[in-house]
Amino acid sequence: MLGAGYEQRTLDLGSDPDGEGEVVATLVRATPPTTPKRAFLWVHGFTDYFFQTELADFFTERGYAFYALDLRKCGRSTRPGQTPHYVSDLALYDAELDEALRIVREETGEIEVLLGAHSTGGLIVPLWLSRLNATPGGSREAGIVGIVLDGPWFDLQGAAWMRSIGTQVIRAVAQVRPLERLKLPPGDAYGSSLHVSAAGEWDYDLTWKPITGFPVTYGWLNAVRRGHAILHRGLDIGVPSLVLRSNRTRFARKHGPDTDVSDAVLDVKQIARWAGCLGDAVTSLPIPGARHDVFLSQAEARAAAYAAVDRWLGYAGLT
């Protein structure tokens, strides 16, 4: 689907614990360097899947074997009759993350692995990594050496009451009607800023990443809020992290000039506030003029983000 130089492998995960049939994940790989020195494994966010070939090029040019994972019910892993992106517990993703890591290490000769994740993936992966680090040998013995987070979802944006009373309502509805959709106002600001059919420069499958996003269900959001609570109590991921974010938030329903130079999805102050909860050595950096996905920002901000990754790789000894 991405053209020459990319392959995909389906990971069978068995019956869905949430009762939506058989579930799979999809591991995508780029043609690796002849003798890769490390591997990089990328995980997407909500209403997302892997299509960012520029990101793959960045890491392969630096000697990394590049892999990306489409989680269950997302992107290439979507199957008929399933609710896009739905899980009742973020820990269910451990199955495909464990298997993806096993395959990456097997295919690359047990070289070290650097992780990367965006938005909701930036919550899912640290939670998994913290659980992995609690096992004998921890993250390091599993071959993981660090993580790059791009606009990670560390808390619920919006009014303060949504993080207290609102969260209790979400939990209560999720117990009886988990697949009911939240009645949220429609908006295309962020999607329009990205896709070539609107104001953006990126071409991707609108079936898997619609301009207005997928509906949010109570059960899924309850799983996210439980994940937030675990993060806020403090994780121990066992490896250094780089956390990238925009330097400002600008919520909007319709696309405008501000949408192109700010985070239109998450509150960047919350990202800055909770970054230290990852544990180990954390480098948290704002990227001026970046979008929610800093690697899909306009050219100047995108270049600044990649330059920040380069500097951090050198600092962490991962060049």
From TrEMBL:
GO molecular function: hydrolase activity
Keywords: Hydrolase
Keyword Membrane on entry: no
A Pfam match: Hydrolase_4
Domain Serine aminopeptidase S33: 35-178
UniProt keyword 4Fe-4S, yes or no: no
Domain of life the protein comes from: Bacteria
The protein's name in its UniProt record: Alpha/beta hydrolase
Organism of derivation: Aeromicrobium alkaliterrae
